[in-house]
Amino acid sequence: ADKDAKKESNTEDTQTEGKVKIGMTLYSLKNEFTVRLANAAEAKAEELGIELVVYDGNYDPSTQISQVETMISDGCDGIILNPQDAEACAPCVDKAADAGIPVVGVNTRVKSDKLTSYVGSIDVTAGEMEMQKIVDLLDGKGNIVIIEGPMGQSAQIERREGIQNILDKYPDIKVLAEKTANWSRSEGMTVMENWLQAFDNIDAVVGENDEMALGAREAIKAAGKDIPAIGVDGITDALNAVEEDNLVASIFQDGAGQGSKAVEVLLDAINGETVEENYWIDFEEVNKDNVEEFKQRAQ
Amino acid sequence: MEKDKEQKIGVKTFIAKYGVIVGLVIIMVFFTVMKAKFLTVENMLNMLRQTSINGLLAIGMTFVVLTGGIDLSVGSIVGASGMFAALVARTEVGMPWYLALLVGLLVGLLLGAVNGVIISYLRVPAFIATLGMLSIARGITFMASDAKPVPGLSKGFLSIGGGSVGFFPIPILILIFVLIICYITLYKTRYGRYVFATGGNPTSARVSGINVKLITCSVYMISGLLSGLAGVILTSRVTSGLAQSGNGYEVDAIAAAVIGGNSLSGGRGRLWGTIIGFLIMGVMNNGLDMMAVSSYWQLVIKGIIIIGAVMLDSLNEIKE
Amino acid sequence: MEKDKEQKIGVKTFIAKYGVIVGLVIIMVFFTVMKAKFLTVENMLNMLRQTSINGLLAIGMTFVVLTGGIDLSVGSIVGASGMFAALVARTEVGMPWYLALLVGLLVGLLLGAVNGVIISYLRVPAFIATLGMLSIARGITFMASDAKPVPGLSKGFLSIGGGSVGFFPIPILILIFVLIICYITLYKTRYGRYVFATGGNPTSARVSGINVKLITCSVYMISGLLSGLAGVILTSRVTSGLAQSGNGYEVDAIAAAVIGGNSLSGGRGRLWGTIIGFLIMGVMNNGLDMMAVSSYWQLVIKGIIIIGAVMLDSLNEIKE
Amino acid sequence: MQGIEKSFNSVQVLQGINFCLEQGSVHALMGENGAGKSTLMKILAGIYKKDKGTIKIKESNVDINTPKQSQELGVAMIHQELSPIPEMTVAENIYLGREPGKGLFLDYKEMYQQTEELLKSLKIQVSPRAVMRNLKVADQQLVEIAKAISLNAEIIVMDEPTSAITDKEVSNLFEIIEDLKKHGKGIIYISHKMDEIFQIADDITVLRDGVYVNTWKAKDINQNTLIKSMVGRELTEIYPKEIVPITEDMLELQNFTKKGKFEGINFKVKKGEIYGIAGLVGAGRTELMHGLFGLDKLDTGKVILEGKEVEIKSPKDAIANRIAYVTEDRKLEGLVLEMSVGQNITLPSMKKLSKGLFVQEKEERTIIKEQREALRIKCSSERQLVKLLSGGNQQKVVLAKWLIKSPKILILDEPTRGIDVGAKAEIYKLMCEFVGKGNSIIMISSEMPEVMGMADRILVLSNGKASGELSREEFTQEHIMKMSVEHI
Ligand SMILES: Nc1ncnc2c1ncn2[C@@H]1O[C@H](COP(=O)(O)OP(=O)(O)OP(=O)(O)O)[C@@H](O)[C@H]1O
Ligand SMILES: Nc1ncnc2c1ncn2[C@@H]1O[C@H](COP(=O)(O)OP(=O)(O)OP(=O)(O)O)[C@@H](O)[C@H]1O
Ligand SMILES: [Mg+2]
Ligand SMILES: [Mg+2]
């Protein structure tokens, strides 16, 4: 039996020698957005004829570090990193760099100068975009509530920063309340229900992602009101909601584009070609006018 | 003088017996004072509707806890049953709402039965068996939907969580209905007696001719069934099947049962305590949101409230 | 014939007593067969380093569980102590690494002591007290950093989690060191006896002149202290203080203890079991990642492994 | 001890109790179940705090608040109800709280050696390394005795130390007590076994309903007066054995075997008969009954009930065949301590007391009330938790719960363990009434006078094997003893 095992591993090794093997760790595989990103990367990898192994980081940076360690000992040629946290996932990059393996960051930046390349966008921009949209809608004056992502997560911190950047410019916009709903639709709904009880004068809801904004909208509709809400990501439900005037807009983040681009860039890096430091894939606003186009892209 | 003493004893015994009720009242008075809009019929209905899901889970958990068990899988069962109900309830499938409800209940019952069999017949500790199920049921849920939301549910289905009968939101009515059934089951039927006996002393229960294994198995089925119901309501409330839904709900459900004075070592407990338990949790979440307390402070205050409410219950024992 | 029988009984008793070890071996053999690179020195060290944090928490949890308690706050204490250690360990503060370590340990010890006092002297059930602390400690952690990461830690501090002595990563050495100390404490000292006695029958323990309250309080301090240590290692490993870190770790820690055969009702347990428990969890996580099982299937398989490993332990009892 | 008073939740259980123990003597404390004997002693041992009164040890007033203080003052107690720590070894239990060792560290070798010596000197045959959980009740009690003696205390309280052990061990214990007396120790001895009292006591104090009755020198009082002062009424006969017609076969056990426990046991019980089973501790009597009642699986064995073979796989089957089993350990197997007196009584009868699924509460209450009165169960109400009752009253609850099942066969395993003379007589009377109706009883008892007084025939087990059956004319203590050791 021992011999057999060896034989098997040998064939496996030769297989991997011929084929480029890359690993990808995502901060989670439990939400639509990252799944979309992972699927796009997988499709691209297949198209390019390379092997891609996808890991679920379970919202935990130390798990992601462990996974990078696993990938290194597993003999990956390159790594795509979608970090849970910009700071805490830096050791992932260091470890890979020490092992001489290129790392491409995707979707969320990681604070390390050893990163081979970054494909994605800046979450601060998303915050700014959605807040600006609401400011325009309210003509620079009114009361809003903010539903935040899990406290301490990079996306939450940066989107909140973007929101604040705009708020600082419009002192007449008042934040009545803000609370985390952990990216969750049902939590977003509950929080909104309570706020609707507490405040009669909410003019708009700013959600740091679509799920929570959609939850808030459910609460608003159930209360027989119509308070505009906005979210980030452009998930399928959000696109539908924008189409049905249920959401004012969603800030679309091209997960699929990021995923496939990251694979391309990483393969270039593995093959020794020079790659740029950043490939920006910008946030785009989805509104009633352009939603059709986004729905097609999302397919 | 004499009378005074008697009254004092009265108050003391009351606090000893009903400490959590006093806790609930204190919390409610506090929120009412801080925020006038807290104690309105509208907000109370709102709070009850929100808490109905945790309420259902906590009631199921009470059965489990009474036998000395624990069910960590309720949150995942909520997710699984909600997801399968959603898959059936999509408008494009064209099934009536009650079929979707049935699917949700059956999924819950089935997963609960698996728990029960593993625990009572294969003798795996409840903590491990239901922890395993927590993981398995969530995995199945993700597979069923590939982590994507399942929207577009039929109107009939959506009214389970969103509708009202007259003034009363349907989830509240369901909760009350379930409470009555469970109260009768626990206190008025032979089955209820067997549940208490099994938790209090399984050996004595067995000697008395009770099929202890069957009883143990059955409480997980009850918990699963109620989780299934909660899953359907939640899905209907958020208007789509979500793979993540119910995540972590087990903690609140166990907390409600324990705050209510049910001992995790079994045999000692009370259903009314569980009601107070989930009301405390519901009032706390609602009140803190209404007061717009910052997320950080909410965490600290919640912790203090949970401990404080129970402390009233135990303070009296200390003096003894 | 005779010999055969004897051997059979031998195997049976072995499985009955050491079922989880058999479980671990089966899992390891499985992974080794499936993935040749699994059983290499490099990967084993890798796996041990990954598991060291859960290992420390599980050891602390073993003390708590032996007294019949539970500590849900370990994950939050990991977060709090890691954060405070990070605040001290920043290069700009200029403190030596051991001071930061000390701060982390003290924060853990302090929060553990608060748990202990609430549980043993104020008689709040452990589940509630530590659930409250879970919430409170996390709230404090968020406040300490405004939920933002704290990067830029000193080199010395970073080597606690990242360094090696010769071949061995420092976290593994720390884990082994703690294991030895705790083994001696539990089995070779009077204190250890008292922990077992307190869990086995608190009334008898009290009658024998043991200060049951103090013992109860102390196990939460041990758990807190080890959580503090784990927090420091984790922070050092991820090179920055994170407000979210340690979130949910309590489940794995309790699972490791229970998989190892420690009864949640107290008095019955074994430290070596806990070691097997956290090794099973570590091997499982590492092996499934190595095999690149899809994340949904991982959930299902993990659930099955957890239940399966324990079932070996209980299977024999069933026949009895 | 003087003027001791104590109440629980405003229920007075002790009222102005005076008690005085002399050095080098055995002072018996007597009284009915629930009279307050254990409570008084627990005050002395620092487990309960007294409400009023003073305690003097060697002429000086002492303040006892914790068990530790009490121990330091030289008081040791063998508890009636306290169980040991089940997962620890015998030695660890005995030396709990005062383990030998240096500094923080334990010296196991020393501990096991000392235990070995201690057990040897007390002639107790238990391994120091045995885990408590695996010991039988009797051996656990012996370990408790050893523990109390090893404390080297001036005052040793023995609260029903012989409730679980057989005559051989009892006489061994009495030798030890004599020895302690010689060394000037004072012993407080609580027991419901009259013959024991008159055998060893120097003084006797009687309590009734928490009130002090009187103290006598043992030689100045006879059994009847003592019983009268305890019970408050005349009790003419302790064993009110009535001869009832013994008719056809009720139950037959064929070839009952469970390896390592008992082997090839056959016997028949007739209608109207009380069938006694005697033997030493560990003879396998309890195990045999577990097998009959479906609690343990048998290797071989057939049960023939009224001429028909029946299959008993679980207690449920046994109950369905109208067999009832009063177990030997009421706390472990008889009662659900967190449930009320009433709920415990009706637990096996739930089916009969329900219509469909629902419990008929009115009917239930009536039955509970009947039983409480019939057995004189002393409790504040039927809703009192059974764990708060005195040991004797708990035993009555177990009896009550089976009697209402109106079984045809009643298995009584040590039925009067820890029960006072008055209640004993009542139980014996109930037994006679029960068989008078054409039912049968299987009675296991380690109290020789009891089996001989009540049984029609006695089966003697020795080390899991039947040594023979005796009919009433053949009953003698020597005879039974000899047969008990036949297979050892
Ligand atoms: N912890 C307690 N709480 C309430 N009542 C109690 C408690 N302990 C004992 N009692 C009551 O006090 C009375 C005396 O009980 P105690 O155990 O001292 O009796 P006893 O004389 O030892 O009886 P027995 O011979 O049956 O052991 C009983 O009526 C009992 O119900
Ligand atoms: N819990 C147990 N674990 C292991 N062995 C046991 C246990 N209980 C009893 N035994 C063994 O079974 C044998 C028969 O015990 P059993 O209790 O039936 O004896 P008994 O005649 O009823 O004695 P007693 O008068 O003490 O009840 C004993 O030799 C004992 O070693
Ligand atoms: Mg007593
Ligand atoms: Mg016996």
From TrEMBL, chains B, C:
Keyword Aminoacyl-tRNA synthetase: no
Transmembrane segments: 15-34, 55-85, 97-119, 126-145, 165-186, 271-288, 294-312
UniProt signal peptide: none
Major place of residence: membrane
Keyword set, alphabetical order: Cell inner membrane, Cell membrane, Membrane, Transmembrane, Transmembrane helix, Transport
Membrane-topology descriptor: Multi-pass membrane protein
Protein origin, superkingdom: Bacteria
PANTHER family: ABC TRANSPORTER PERMEASE PROTEIN YPHD-RELATED, ABC TRANSPORTER PERMEASE PROTEIN YPHD-RELATED-RELATED
Name of the protein in question: ABC transporter permease
Organism: Aequitasia blattaphilus
Record lineage: Bacteria, Bacillati, Bacillota, Clostridia, Lachnospirales
TrEMBL record, chain D:
Alphabetical keyword list: ATP-binding, Cell membrane, Membrane, Nucleotide-binding, Repeat, Sugar transport, Translocase, Transport
Residue ranges occupied by any ABC transporter domain in the UniProt entry: 1-234, 245-488
Coiled-coil annotated residue ranges, if any: none
Stored InterPro entries: AAA+_ATPase, ABC_carbohydrate_import_ATPase, ABC_transporter-like_ATP-bd, ABC_transporter-like_CS, P-loop_NTPase
Pfam family, one: ABC_tran
MF term (GO), any: ATP binding
Descriptive protein name: Sugar ABC transporter ATP-binding protein
Source organism per UniProt: Aequitasia blattaphilus
